[in-house]
Structures are given as structure tokens and as C-alpha cells.
Amino acid sequence: MPADHDLPHIDVSALRVGMFVHLDLGWMAHPFPLSSFRLTQPEQIAVIRHLGLKRVRWSPERSVLPDGGPWPAGGAAAGAGGAAGDQAAPSPGAAGEAAMPDATESAAAAAAASAPGAGAVAPDVAPDPWAEEQARARLCERQQQEACRAWRLLADQVLGQPDQARETAAALSRSLVDKLLPAGDVCVRVLAEPRGDRASAHALNVAVLSLLLGRQLGLAPDLQQELGLGSLLHDIGKLNLPDRVRWPREDFSAAELSLYRDHVGQGVQLGRRMSLPPGALLVLGQHHETADGRGFPLGVKQAQMNRLASIVALVNAYDNLCNPASLARALTPHEALSRLFSQHRRQHDEAVMGGLVRLLGIYPPGTVVELSDGRPGLVLRVNGHHPMRPQLRVHDLSQPDGGLWLDLARHPALSVRGSLRPEQLGLQARQALEPRQRTAYFFEMAAPDEALAESADAPTPQGAR
């Protein structure tokens, strides 16, 4: 099989269902979950043509006929009505600056093949589950980094170029929403937080989980777009605050607490300058309100809270428990979800709380757990279709590197016995599992064989009874 950069190019007018294509665009410049995938619907071809590309790279070896047979000898000429590709460089067109994908994306595409409706590609050799998992993780990290760069750009624009900041935020929100529109299961994944960039990491955490939760709750696409805007910008009022009061701390003086809480009002003012839509503005104004009326700045109750704001308020509280200003006070994702459910349930919309539990499961990604056979593991991904059976990195001394990739959905005899604090792990287990100090989330479309036939009932976090 040729390397990705050696693959032939084909004119977009010659694309046919069954071709495995590679889009030389950044992740945010197109609406597909991956940049490498098999075409399964005519609508995908129409979208590619609309992107402004003249040619795309394609892989005859990974392409199949609509009936499932191998692509005939002769490549594009045999399968596309005589329109052959060539080796000319692709045009970036109007969709954005072209960027050659690396082996990470190709490996992840081969492993997941998760474009809308795409089927799994049979590998030439038996796949290494951990190698595939690492490839998927690297792809998600690259996508997260691209989204963080876009957020930093809009943050730089907010004060001096509010209209441009709105357009940048809208493009980022639209990109995230577009990835979540296709039908199918979504996996929530834990990643390492970008170093030294808490503002963008927090904004992306809140936006990603809010949009996933909105999808879980069945929000319409237009509301998802407003939710994306509001969640990405919920803390822009902090841009005017001194660094020492940008993150909530229990040792704030009365003056510091007042200054910190003022970021809500300042955010609404900036949002109005940006001409944000009403739903997004309400997110900025109500993301610290609570259903019981004990929030700020106005102390409104659930009946007066906007639905989008209720989603962001819960997700914001969850992320602040996992990633507080002081790492010594950080809760594990399982502890954070359990605390919200058991101690703060009245502060949040019941339906929204239930949706978050269904989305993340009892043991959210980033949680260190003990399996029923006594082995420790780190939850890396949760499939929303079966949140009680996550996918983990398990400490296993029989493996050369001490770790084993395990999908509990494929091992019904195993289960999670309970959660652990990272400091409870032995040295070898810590080295094999590498638990995160801070928790960052992203998402990916589940591969077809990861989708289970029936949905699980909403689980209840331990300690909530």
C-alpha cells in the first residue's frame, strides 16, 4: 500500500460512492469527522465539491464498490466512468489552507473509518488495539490543538475586533456542531490538557461537553450553534480581570470575590458588542446561576434560566471540580460527578443532570478504576451507547510496557469494582497508566463495531443513594 503522500489525485467531478478519499484540509475546514474516509453517500460527494477543492487524494486499495466488492483494476478509470486522477498538486480552494495530514490521521482513519455512514476497513494484518488507540488519541489531540488555536485567536480579537471575534467563534462552533450532526454513536475521550493554557482548555472542555450534552438531550442544530457560541465565550468577561482572580478560589477576600463575580456582567457587555444571538448572551449571563436560586449575579431560579445556560452551568461546575485553580483540590472525574449528583443536585436542572450522567457514565474518562479481577485501569473513552462499560488502559504485568488496552463491552465477565485516587496506585501502575493531573475532553465518532444494539439505562453515580 503506498504512503499517503504518494497516493494519486482525482478530480472531484470523478468521485464515486465507494472511494476512500483524503482531504488535504485542516480539521475545521470541512464538516466530516475525519479527513480520510470512504464515501458511502452521494451527499458526501456534493459536500466535497462545495468545499472548493479541485482534486483530492484517494486510495484505490481501501476503496470498495457499493456492493462491497473490491475496487476493479484500473482504479478511477474502471470505477468512475473513465475519469482518471493525476499527480497534480491539489488546490486548497476556498475552504482553507491545505495541510498534508500525517500518518496519525491515516492510521486513525483506517482504524475508525468514522465518516458519516462509513464502514470499517478490513486491515491487511490483525490490528494492535493499543496502537490503534494511540493513533486515535493523537488525532483527537491534534484536533483539540487546532480548536484551541482558534479560541486563542478569538480571545485576542474580543476587545479590539468584536465583529471578527464573533465570526471566529461562530466558525469554531459551527465546526464542532457539524462533526456531531451525523447519526451514530459518539465516544467521549480524555486527553492531556494543553500545557500553560488553562483559558482555552477550560473553554474547549466546557464547549465540547456542553455540545455533547446538547446532542444527548436532542437540541436542534440551530440551538446547538448558539450553545456552542455561548459555551466557547462563557468566560470572556475574565479577559478584563487581573490574573489572580480569573479562577475561583476558596481563599478569596470579599473584594476579590466581588471582582471575580463581575466577570459575568463584563462578559455580557462584551457579548453585546459582538452582537451575539440571544441564546448565547443568556449563557454568558446565567452560567453561574443555579436552579435553587443560590447562584450569581441575579439569583434566578430554574424557571427563569435559559435551557442552554442550564447546560453550560452544569458542565462549567463539573470542569471546575476536575480542574480547580489548586491541583491539590482537584477531584477525579468520578468524584466530581458523584459530588454534583449527591450534594448539588438541586442546583441543576434534573433532566440536564441525568443527561450528563448518561453521557459520561458512572466512571467518566480520566477516572482511575479497579476492575473486578483486581487490576487497576484508567478510563480513556466512554461510548455513550453503553456508558457502564468503558474502554480502559489496564495495568497488566504480562505486557512488555505494563499496560493493556481493554474494551469492557467485549469482556462481559469483567466489570468495574470502584474508583481509585491516582495516589493509590503503585509506582509501576502509575508509570503504565499515566493518570492526568488535569482533565481535558474531546470526542470522536465511534467506529461501527463499537456501536451496541441497545442503549443503557441512565446510571447512578456511587455515593448518590
Characterization of this structure:
The structure is a single chain. The protein is an alpha+beta fold and 465 residues long. The protein has helices at residues 42-50, 76-79, 103-112, 129-158, 162-180, 198-216, 221-232, 254-261, 263-273, 278-286, 307-322, 333-343, 350-360, 427-433; strands at residues 9-11, 20-22, 36-38, 55-59, 186-191, 368-371, 376-383, 391-395, 403-407, 416-420, 440-445. Strands 5, 6, 7, 8, 9, 10 and 11 form a seven-stranded antiparallel β-sheet that branches. Mean pLDDT is 83; it is low at 77-126 and 451-458.
Attribute tags:
465 residues, 14 helices, alpha+beta, seven-stranded antiparallel beta sheet, four-stranded antiparallel beta sheet, 11% strand
Q: What is the CA–CA distance across the termini? A: 55 Å
Shape annotation = globular
In percent, how much strand structure appears in the residues?
5-15%
Low-confidence stretches: 77-126, 451-458
Oligomer: single chain
Structural class: alpha+beta
Biggest sheet descriptor: 7 strands, antiparallel
**What is the mean pLDDT?**
83
Instruction: Indicate the percent of residues in helices.
Output: 25-40%
How many individual β-strands?
A: 11
Q: DSSP helix count?
A: 14
What series of H and E elements makes up the topology? Answer: EEEHEHHHHEHHHHHHHHEEEEEHE
Q: Compute the gyration radius: what is it?
A: 23 Å
